[in-house]
What does this fold into?
Amino acid sequence: MQALVLEKTRLLRLREIAIDEPLGPHDVRVRIHTVGVCGSDVHYYQHGAIGPFVVRAPMVLGHEASGVVEETGPAVTTLRPGDRVCMEPGIPDPNSRATRLGLYNLDPAVRFWATPPVHGCLRPTVVHPEAFTFKLPDNVGFGEGAMVEPLAVGLHAAGKARLKPGDVAVVLGAGPIGTLTALAALAGGCSRVFITDVQPAKLALAATLGPITPVNVREQNPGEVVRAATGGWGADVVFEATGMPEAAAQAIDVLCPGGCAVFIGMPGAPVPFDIVAAQVKEARIETIFRYAHVYPRALALLGSGKLNVRPLITDHFAFADSIAAFDYACNMKPGSVKVQIELA
Ligand code: ZN
It folds into this structure.
């Protein structure tokens, strides 16, 4: 089949590749419709590795996908050909200790699309387990379906924060994950969200999506802005979504006493962290790695209209222009948030 293949660092090809995918009894074959370009895909393209994951052989990119069920295995009961679906890209070992504990995202044996050596989904069809394939509500389009993957990260972070109705949150970083986390925080009960970035266009877009206050860190100090707006108290929750060491090091500053910090972004190097600053607030520190069984909640929120991701899908490319899409994603316009590639 024709696929977008990362041959090695900085070399992409749209070419034929043989992928042997027998349809197991509990599997479905899905014709891919839309694939979002993720920061991790771009990182593999530019650098050939993320932490311990190194691209050593040609690998198909892409893990944020929606499509249409084409064929079902004999034991599949909940899906049928023609169903519009999105797919969770990480498949754990169902019998692993992590999976049995409900922590399947932490299963060391998890096979995740476009994480070496596993091929991704920028290709015409994939075979996927029924249990990790989710029907789209009728009013949710393929573009939104392909946004469920990054949205699941934000919802998992909101869950880890244990939000209460009326909480004030700060999201550091207005990229796709930061902006989706802001929407997840509002859906989870926050009364308002402050979002930080250095790109005025990204902040301006975020500010149109709800009670979201933009803070340009080139001009304002987030801690001062948040304290001024909360009678000096601070935010109940901070979500770190920049992955920048400087931002991560200062996350505790915006928090109120007893607040919670959730670290989403992955800094490329160890970050100095002021433990005393966290202790004097008795800050609760949470971290996330991907998500576990959040897709049904994400689809319920999209289907109900309570959460709208459409304004974040800013750029569209045809499959034939996939390499151009990646080159664009490496150097996006400031107002661009999510690039998607359409195969159908
Ligand atoms: Zn992603």
Q: What stands out?
A: The chain has a mean pLDDT of 97. The chain has eleven helices and 20 strands.
